[in-house]
Amino acid sequence: MKKGVKRMSFVITSACIHEQAGICVDVCPVDCIVFGDDQFLIDPNRCIDCGACETVCPVEAIYFEEEVPAKESASILKAKEYFGVA
């Protein structure tokens, strides 16, 4: 996995663990959404910040990193660890 990105673009939070509809994968123009251990995750090295995934998420689980609710901050760490982002 690539390293070098210092921030996440969009982050998929824990609501996805129970939903996993995958609509976000279908609309992503750069195929940056992958299935991790238990939910979808967005690769910050590939994401172009288009927001297509955020608008179609049926459980509103996708946020810009800066807008992730405090109670979901573990989702940021989870994605950073998965993609090796410092």
The share of residues in helices is 25-40%
CATH topology: Alpha-Beta Plaits
Counting structural domains, the number is: 1
Oligomer: single chain
Low confidence ranges: none
Largest sheet: 2 strands, antiparallel
**Alpha-carbon distance between the two ends:** 12 Å
* Whole-number mean pLDDT: 91
Structural class: alpha+beta
Radius of gyration: 11 Å
Strand order of the largest sheet: 1-4
Please give the count of helices: 4
CATH architecture: 2-Layer Sandwich
Give the overall silhouette. globular
Number of beta strands = 4
What is the CATH class?
Alpha Beta
What proportion of the residues form beta strands (DSSP E)? 5-15%
The SSE order reads EHHEEHEH
Function: Ferredoxins are iron-sulfur proteins that transfer electrons in a wide variety of metabolic reactions.
Domain 4Fe-4S ferredoxin-type: 38-67
Organism: Sporosarcina luteola
GO molecular function: 4 iron, 4 sulfur cluster binding; electron transfer activity; metal ion binding
Overview of this protein structure:
Keywords: 4Fe-4S, Electron transport, Iron, Iron-sulfur, Metal-binding, Transport. This is Ferredoxin. Ferredoxins are iron-sulfur proteins that transfer electrons in a wide variety of metabolic reactions. The protein is α+β, with helices and mostly antiparallel strands and 86 residues long. The chain has one domain: Alpha-Beta Plaits (2-Layer Sandwich). Helix content is 30%, strand content 14%. The model has no long low-confidence stretch (mean pLDDT 91).
